[in-house]
TrEMBL record:
<dbReference type="GO" id="GO:0004311">
    <property type="term" value="F:geranylgeranyl diphosphate synthase activity"/>
</dbReference>
<dbReference type="InterPro" id="IPR044843">
    <property type="entry name" value="Trans_IPPS_bact-type"/>
</dbReference>
<protein>
    <recommendedName>
        <fullName>15-cis-phytoene synthase</fullName>
        <ecNumber>2.5.1.32</ecNumber>
    </recommendedName>
</protein>
<dbReference type="InterPro" id="IPR002060">
    <property type="entry name" value="Squ/phyt_synthse"/>
</dbReference>
<dbReference type="GO" id="GO:0051996">
    <property type="term" value="F:squalene synthase [NAD(P)H] activity"/>
</dbReference>
<dbReference type="Pfam" id="PF00494">
    <property type="entry name" value="SQS_PSY"/>
</dbReference>
<dbReference type="GO" id="GO:0046905">
    <property type="term" value="F:15-cis-phytoene synthase activity"/>
</dbReference>
<dbReference type="InterPro" id="IPR019845">
    <property type="entry name" value="Squalene/phytoene_synthase_CS"/>
</dbReference>
<keyword id="KW-0808">Transferase</keyword>
<comment type="similarity">
    <text>Belongs to the phytoene/squalene synthase family.</text>
</comment>
<dbReference type="InterPro" id="IPR008949">
    <property type="entry name" value="Isoprenoid_synthase_dom_sf"/>
</dbReference>
<dbReference type="GO" id="GO:0009536">
    <property type="term" value="C:plastid"/>
</dbReference>
<keyword id="KW-0414">Isoprene biosynthesis</keyword>
<comment type="pathway">
    <text>Carotenoid biosynthesis; phytoene biosynthesis; all-trans-phytoene from geranylgeranyl diphosphate: step 1/1.</text>
</comment>
<dbReference type="InterPro" id="IPR033904">
    <property type="entry name" value="Trans_IPPS_HH"/>
</dbReference>
<keyword id="KW-0125">Carotenoid biosynthesis</keyword>
<dbReference type="GO" id="GO:0016117">
    <property type="term" value="P:carotenoid biosynthetic process"/>
</dbReference>
Amino acid sequence: MSAAMMWVVSPNSEVCNQLGFLETTRTTDSSNKKGLFRLKNVGRKHRCYSVFNKVGSRRTSVARRVVANPSGNLAISSEQLVYDVVLKQAALVKKQMRSREEDVDVKPEIVLPGNLGLLNEAYDRCGEVCAEYAKTFYLGTLLMTPERRKAIWAIYVWCRRTDELVDGPNASHITPKALDRWESRLEDLFNGRPFDMLGAALSDTVSKFPVDVQPFKDMIDGMRMDLRKSRYENFDELYLYCYYVAGTVGLMSVPIMGIAPESNAPTESVYNAALALGIANQLTNILRDVGEDARRGRVYLPQDELAQAGLSDEDIFAMEVTDKWRSFMKKQIHRARTFFDQAEEGVTQLSSASRWPVWASLLLYRQILDEIEANDYNHFTKRAYVSKPKKIVALPVAYAKSLVPPSSRKLASN
Ligand SMILES: CC(C)=CCC/C(C)=C/CC/C(C)=C/CC/C(C)=C/[C@@H]1[C@@H](COP(=O)(O)OP(=O)(O)O)[C@]1(C)CC/C=C(\C)CC/C=C(\C)CCC=C(C)C
Ligand SMILES: [Mn+2]
């Protein structure tokens, strides 16, 4: 084992500890270049590959993000772990763009006439599901090129189905085993062997666009987390959950939506913005649904921040709007807005036809935060929602914003 690896191994078990697990060992699989760690107490693998990727060229960057945990040991933040997925996704797209330029590696597409009909049917069905669950978003996709629109529908449907496993009518029967099965079906469809019709649409999508399987797997991990965890010690833990269930959506979508040819922003900065939009949306979801989640015995708000504000789970279950609650909520809303702000610059870098649906979703979701404020932070018994007239106003605003082309100013990559 090299000295560099030694440097990595010891803090890495702390990473896994920080993610809520107790005992970790390095996997014995010597072919594993990504540094998979087997978590003894849950009997499954968790990827801590960022650390291995960092040995060498980006070591200083890791050091910058290494933080001390409460026991004084070194640990790597969830933000760093997630940022490495961002870099990997960005690199994949760059690689595909290069191979297109060099005209290598382009496989002729062989589609049998019978299969094409079935495939079109599969995509149409994805479009119908999308229209049923997310009308505004569906309308937005109609502005995209047909290929991109169909691909986004296929991804939407896979995400919806994944969420339904833990939140849908059969959720009480869902076990970690069922999620393992869902993951193996995911692997199959990435290998061109879809299990069903809706999966066939996604299988076709991932064969055409430079979409990586990692964010999909991570979303399933988020659902696993939801099954076993109902409290989050601090924002670092919550950030990881938000990445899993929502940041991943941003990473899945950018390869489809495409970056504007005139954009000169670093690819990873666009992915970072997409990640931020997912995180912002999920934080907003969490703030909006505090009452609903409490009724299911779940508290997604960081426990340490609640304690600092003089609040506890009991105050949430009591569902009383107090001054302590208001001031706590102001800080949470401020944090969610910061993530929306981070996302904003990235939207402009997207290809022109993809900007409108993203702006619309950003503006509409962000307004939920305004509604929470307007309800005087009583989201225990009132559900904050954006009224139809406000939605109607937001859509042309989103359209006007989508006309703004990428500026020549460079985005910070992190
Ligand atoms: C550069 C840049 C800014 C690019 C844009 C990137 C982009 C398109 C980001 C999209 C972010 C987004 C919409 C994230 C979804 C967040 C979300 C709401 C996640 C929900 C998770 C579970 O939450 P929970 O169970 O607490 O909530 P419910 O009560 O169940 O609502 C999800 C439900 C996960 C499943 C996610 C989806 C079904 C949405 C998938 C959406 C797409 C694939 C399309 C995204 C495209 C646009 C234009 C918004
Ligand atoms: Mn859900």
